[in-house]
Amino acid sequence: MNKTDTLRKDLLYTSEHAAKRLSAEDISAADKYADGYKAFLECKIEREVVSYAVAMAEKNGFVPFDKNTVYKKGSKIYLNHHGKALILAVLGSRPLTDGVSVAAAHIDSPRLDLKPNPLYEDQELAYFDTHYYGGIKKYQWPALPLTLRGVVFRRDGTCVPVSVGDTPDEPVFCVTDLLPHLSGEQYKRPAPELIKGEDLNILIGSRPLSDGKGDELVKLHIMQLLHEKYGIVESDLLSAELHAVPAYPARDVGFDRSMVGAYGQDDRVCAYPALTAILELKKPAYTAVTVLADKEEIGSNGTTGMKSAFFANFIEDLAAAQGAAGRHVLSASLCLSADVNVALDPIYPDTVERRNCARLNHGVVLTKYTGAHGKSDTSDASAEVMHRVRGILDDKGIVWQIGELGRVDLGGGGTVAKYIANLDVDTVDLGVPVLSMHAPFEVVSKLDVHMAHRAFEALFVR
Length: 462
Hints:
single chain, alpha/beta, Aminopeptidase, Aminopeptidase i, Domain 2, 9-stranded mixed sheet, 7-stranded antiparallel sheet, globular
């Protein structure tokens, strides 16, 4: 290289395609890792993710957490929190007061939730009434095959799992749409109102009860079928959590199979690497913790969201058993808030600022702040934290990049980072760039997903 090239290499910051920096073996490993990730994406609601993760954890020697137990170095424990959030930990050789290493992801995704009293009939068609969950473009959800997932609690207290529409022999459901020939008035609406929230009702049947008499025979027939299969009556739907999500599986995208397309990759694309990194962990120096939380898409509220005290309580109980204070552990800790960021889409280039946006295949994204407008509602990681995380990633040869969530004043968003930072934990966002975020079919790069796994590994072995 001439002097100019040397100076450019030594002094300037550039981001490049990960394939230019990785060996053929690294790329092959990423493709293999993606196979496990695609299987994981069959978990489409948080309850399924927790059940999957607990089963994997127990296979890897993790045991349920007991707050009265003093755990030894290398102990593997987990806390299943109401079946919808999960904490896994591997005890390190250093004292807890030296801090813990935390990877915190969320496992909920935008979807259609059934209302408490959802079943109705109109013009001899049966429907489930829904209330959408999280930030969606409502016009993306009609004319889409849907599967129904969740649980129903019967009057006797029995919990009945529901999963319909997952295999070719099972029925699917859908929200209907208006044909273009009759959409003249609909087209005049602003895009957010093109499909109204109250119109996102799921078509579930059209055949009346045979030999029935009276009104609402289609609804009665559907309820008969539900009673035969699940032993439920209509009032049991008042004590149910049922979610409609896209019915199709995760698929490779592109002739080169370099990408994964699926529903719910925000934020399961970060949850899976955070999970696999801790499952494979042996004897870390710092205690390692993976948190899989619920409710991020609606503000992290509730007992299973990161605004809840369940994570801080876990640290407090873990520390108390060793004669330490939880607040001292937290203040010495480091957290990677494992959440996605927007990837540059060349079809919509004006939504991002190119020098500070993430790109597919350029590795994991380190996001100093999220929020909106004047960095509102974000934790904004300090220079010290950015320096620490840069060092961890560079020392392990992790391909990474920086990113912002769109142009200033255009929009914005948030993650769980601020809630963990509010506990006096040094925190910064790190995750995978996504195309078509919050759509029913999101796209990520296999190389970026594997880099996320390696990044959380690096955090845990620091």
